[in-house]
Amino acid sequence: MNITIIGAGNIGGALARGWSKANHDTRITVSGVHWEKLNKIKDDCPDVDIMTDDCRAIQTADIIIIAVKPWQVETVIGDIQPNLKTTQILISLAAGVTLAQLQELMTKHQCPQLPLFYIIPNIAAEFCESMTFITAAAGVDTHTINKVEDLFKQVGDVFVCAEKLVAPGMLMASCGIAYVMRFLRVQTEAGVEMGFYPKDALKIAIQTMKGAAELLHQTGEHPEAAIDRVTTPGGYTIKGLNEMDHAGFNSAVIKVFKTGL
After folding, report:
1. Please, are residues 44 and 126 in contact by the beta-carbon 8 Å criterion?
2. pLDDT single digits (tens) 182-241
3. Beta strands per DSSP E along the chain
4. pLDDT by residue (tens digit) across 87-124?
5. How far is CA 206 from CA 200, 202, 223, 235, in A?
6. What Å distances lie between residue 166 and 54, 81, 98, 131, 260, CA to CA?
7. Is the Cβ–Cβ distance between 88 and 62 less than 8 Å?
8. Which of 130, 138, 222, 115 is nearest to 170 (CA)?
9. What is the C-alpha to C-alpha distance for residues 167 and 171, in angstroms, rounded to an integer?
10. Given Cys at both, which of 94, 118, 125, 132 links 14, Cβ 3.0 to 4.6 Å?
C-alpha cells in the first residue's frame, strides 16, 4: 500500500513516524513546503520518501491524506486535482472541514469521484497510541471503511462514528491530550512542592497515570468502582477527592471539554 501525507506538521509527521514503525510493508511519502520539517521526518524514518511537490507525491498513492490547516485544504485540492484517480482514497484531517464542504471543494475543482473520509487522530500516533475518530462520506462501501479503519488501528485505537461525533471526539482526544498533560504538569508541581526533584516528580506522575489507565483498560471497571478500591474511610484519598469536588474540579473539566461545541 502506498500512502501520501500532504503536510509535514505535527500530525502529518506523527502519522508518518507511527506507520513507519508499525508497518514496513507500507510505502509512505510526505509532501510539504518546509524542508527542515521534511528532513527531520526523513532523519527519524529513513524509509519515508519526502518531497515538496504535492501533485507528484500522489501519483502512485493508494491513500491520500490531507494534513494541513483548514484554510489550506482548497489550495491542496486544486494542486493535486490533475493526478487524482477514482481508485484512490482521500482523507482529510483538517478540523472543522466537513464532508459536505470537502465534497463541494472536490466538485468546484472538477475532481473525480473517489471515497472521502474525515478523520481526527492525535499526535500520540507517533508512538502508535492515538485515539482516532473516523467518518466516511455517504456511499463509501464497507470494504473501504474497513481498509481505512485497519490502517489507523496500526497507530492506536479507532472509533468509527457519525460525523456529528467527530468534533466531540476531537475535544476529548485531540484537545484532551493537552488537558491530560496539563494535569500531569500540575501533579509534578505538587510533587516538587512536597520535596521531589522535577524529573522524579514527573516520572512518578506519568507512571501513576499510565497505571490508572491500564487498570481501567484491563479490568473494564468503571472509574468510580476503581476509586472505591483505593479510598479508605478517613484516609488521604477521600480527603483529596473531596477537595477536588469543593474546588469544582468535575464541573471545570466538563466545561473545558465542551468549550469548542
Report:
1. no
2. 999 999 999 999 999 999 999 999 999 999 999 999 999 999 999 999 999 999 999 999
3. 2-6, 27-31, 49-51, 63-66, 89-92, 116-120, 130-136, 156-160
4. 999 999 999 999 999 999 999 999 999 999 999 999 99
5. 10, 6, 18, 23
6. 27, 26, 10, 12, 12
7. yes
8. 130
9. 6
10. 125
